[in-house]
Specification:
Blueprint (H helix, E strand, L loop, with lengths): L5 H6 L1 H10 L1 H18 L3 H10 L16 H7 L2 H15 L4 H12 L16 H13 L13 H22 L8
Helix pairs in contact: 3-4, 3-8, 3-9, 4-7, 4-8, 6-7, 7-8
Bound molecules: fe (ii) ion (FE2).
InterPro entries: HD/PDEase_dom (IPR003607), HD_domain (IPR006674), HDIG_dom (IPR006675)
Protein name: Phosphohydrolase YueE
Organism: Pontibacillus salipaludis
Length: about 180
């Protein structure tokens, strides 16, 4: 057993609250992509899936007065990666995640995009950070439409449970000690 599963993370009220803004469908889809890409690249599948699931929990709402998403304002002023990294770290530690993993996941969220930075991250990311960026980009649609795709909560839990099982299988095969030793 891992210390914290994807289903544990998803069921927490903090995750549920903030994923409502950025989209449950996008989060679950990105987590699935991250697992596949991490597996291909020999990156930790648990950390990659968790970072991808939580990568957008720092989103604010950027609605105009008429209720439309103001994508230009968002592009210019958004810092969701910073807020998301902090929220994810707090959540992971509260749920009992290993501190080393919590940092890796949190920094991968911080650096999943360079849209808010004064420089580009191309070639500077760790393999884990790169996996999260690729998984996010794979589900991205013009004008942020990927944030609007719908997914029932029960469907999200079912998919994440399956993904948790796949991660357990990979860990068992690689013989990774996935229980905190303290
Ligand atoms: Fe995203």
């Amino acid at each position: 057993m891992r210390n914290v599963t994807l289903v544990d993370l998803f069921k927490h009220h903090i995750t549920r609250k903030y994923l409502r803004r950025s989209g449950v469908h996008h989060a679950v889809t990105a987590a699935n992509y991250a697992f596949e890409i991490a597996l291909e690249r020999g990156v930790d599948v648990d950390q990659a899936s968790k970072a991808a699931l939580l990568h957008d929990i720092g989103h604010y709402e950027w609605y105009t007065n008429d209720g439309e998403w103001d994508y230009d304002d968002y592009r210019q002023n958004d810092i969701h990666a910073i807020k998301g990294a902090e929220r994810a770290h707090k959540l992971l530690i509260r749920l009992g995640e290993d501190r080393v993993a919590a940092k890796q996941i949190s920094v991968a969220i911080l650096l999943h995009t360079d849209s808010y930075l004064p420089f580009h991250l191309d070639g500077k990311q760790t393999p884990l950070q790169e996996v999260v960026t690729l998984a996010d980009n794979k589900d991205e649609q013009p004008k942020g439409m990927h944030h609007y795709k719908q997914m029932e909560i029960s469907e999200a839990i079912r998919e994440l449970h399956q993904l948790d099982q796949k991660i357990d299988v990979v860990y068992a095969k690689e013989n990774i000690p996935n229980e905190q030793s303290s």
